[in-house]
Amino acid sequence: MTETILIIEDEPLLGQELQRYYADLGYETLWAADCRQARTILSDQENRPALILSDLSLPDGTGLDLLEETRGNLSDCEWVFLTGYGEVPDSVRALRLGAFDFLTKPCVQEQLDMVVRSALRSAQAQRRILTDSVNAGRRYSPESFIGNSKVSRQTTNMLRQLSQVPYSALILTGETGTGKGLATRILHYNSDRAKEPLVELNCAALPKDLLESELFGHEAGAFTGAKSRHRGLIEQAHKGTLFLDEIGEMPLDLQAKLLKVLEDRKLRRLGSEQELSVDIRIIAATHRNLQDEVKNGHFRSDLYYRLSVFELRLPSLRERLEDLDDLVPALIAEFNCLAGKKVTQVSPRAWQRLKRYAWPGNVRELRNVLERSVILSLSHQLPEQWLPGADAVVESGFAETNPRTVEQVEAPQTAAEQSKLDLQFPIDGSMGLEEMESEIVRKMLATCNGNVMEVARILKTTREKIRYRIEKYHLR
Ligand SMILES: Nc1ncnc2c1ncn2[C@@H]1O[C@H](COP(=O)(O)OP(=O)(O)OP(=O)(O)O)[C@@H](O)[C@H]1O
Asked: What InterPro entries would the database entry show (predicted)?
């Protein structure tokens, strides 16, 4: 999609030159010579600019007043000020009002181009978040947490109640696949913040430095590679909700920085002197017991108490196997629709297998099993061969996972290491991808006598990635 840039500039030569320049680069461009014309253009809902490149002093007002007046309606648009009269108080006010950047004329074309590109990227990201919000808002009512067991009804009631109250933070606990992400969406899209962004970050997915700049944002030049300004996820979640998945994996020093943001409601991007006000609700999820993590020093107690205004535990599927009565038909209907299938019958034997399995991967695992079964179905009957095997079923309904099938993972042979690593993983849902990865790195380190360089070479990755995994999985 071609992005639109609005240029607000009272100097006709410069205005037209900028318009021509960005039109040649492939953007839609609009030009307003004063605030009045700019207001007319901005009131057109059909042709909303993604970027406004504005002079500060205009014949009938200032660009800053225009920004203040319109910013409520233009949350997916970035402002860059380009002024010959730039003074510190103006730039401070511009940034406080949420402008993306403030450049003083004359400014080098490459610098302007770089700022324009990053501002457009930022506007696109915000637009995506807002579009997702509108679509998702229709889907996530408290009832989308399916299940009629006592414990599920309690959970749905709790989600309904929490959606009505203005809390600042909440912790969701529960095993993988129990619906912590789903609960977050329900909480956000049924709250008074529903029209604002829901921004998600998995704290286990990024190495520390990247996590810090993703969360807090950075200024151009804040570190090697920081070419231009970047709004962090905390800033992007302003007025909305920030979902921090796997919060237990966040390094301790970032925990301290996050706590400061929560307490002061102020944020400083990396490399910036400027503090920005932020208003966010945090929903933090973890599969760990955070109280234990606090006791053993892996999680800051002050952050734990700040976040645990409410704590909601999502039950495992094996605690509520009767929910299969509702979950299975709902999921089969969903996959019928997606795959154009017509599965309408589940045989008593298939039900028995579904109900006697322990579901270590919870609803996510159930979804995967049913998706596979529906896609591969050849009749109205749910096929049985892809349902959990009898040997992974225990009478009590609790896991005692005998590997159903095993997959052989071989490390490549090298001159340094002639012996094959004999790694076998159960693929019955009892072992997650992360555990497998941790096991591979642990065994490789043992085989290579702790030589990280050698491990990285054999696994065709970088030393940093191996070091990151050593930290992440506590493999020292
Ligand atoms: N009660 C439920 N009703 C309907 N769908 C559910 C329910 N619980 C979970 N799901 C679905 O199962 C899948 C996994 O859930 P989700 O990603 O929310 O789990 P999670 O607890 O956040 O997992 P992880 O800790 O691994 O991130 C999603 O597609 C979610 O919509």
From this structure: AAA+_ATPase, AAA_lid_NorR, CheY-like_superfamily, Homeodomain-like_sf, HTH_Fis, P-loop_NTPase, Sig_transdc_resp-reg_receiver, Sigma_54_int
Instruction: Answer whether 179 contacts ligand 1 (Cβ < 6 A).
Output: yes
Tell me: ipTM over 0.95: yes
Listed in sequence order, the residues at least 6 apart from 442 whose beta carbon sits closer than 8 Å to its beta carbon are 473, 475
pTM attached to this predicted model: 0.68
**Which residues of 72-149 form beta strands (DSSP E)?**
78-83, 101-104
Query: Using a 6 Å cutoff on CB, does residue 145 contact ligand 1?
Result: yes
Spatial contact of 458 and 410, defined as CB atoms under 8 Å apart = no
In a shared domain, residues 309 and 331: no
- Quick: pLDDT tens for 164-211: 999 999 999 999 999 999 999 999 999 999 988 999 999 988 888 889
Given ligand 1 and candidates 156, 178, 317, 322, which is best to mutate, with the most ligand atoms within 8 Å of its CB?
178
Please work out whether the CB of residue 202 comes within 6 Å of at least one atom of ligand 1: no
Last-in-domain residue among 286, 313, 340: 313
pLDDT tens-digit readout, 394-409? 333 333 333 222 222 2
* Final residue belonging to a domain, choices 313, 344, 362: 313
> What is the domain extent for residue 42?
4-131
325 shares a domain with 273: no
Ligand 1 pocket member 146 (CB < 6 A): yes
Q: Region of 334 please: left (phi>0), alpha (psi -120 to 50) or beta.
A: alpha
The answer on 17 and 50 residing in a single domain is yes
- Which atom of ligand 1 is least distant from the CA of 155? 1
What atom of ligand 1 comes closest to residue 366's alpha carbon? 12
CA distances from 418 to 6, 413, 415, 442, 443 (A): 64, 6, 6, 18, 14
Q: What is the rounded distance in angstroms from the CA atom of residue 143 to the CA atom of residue 376?
A: 29
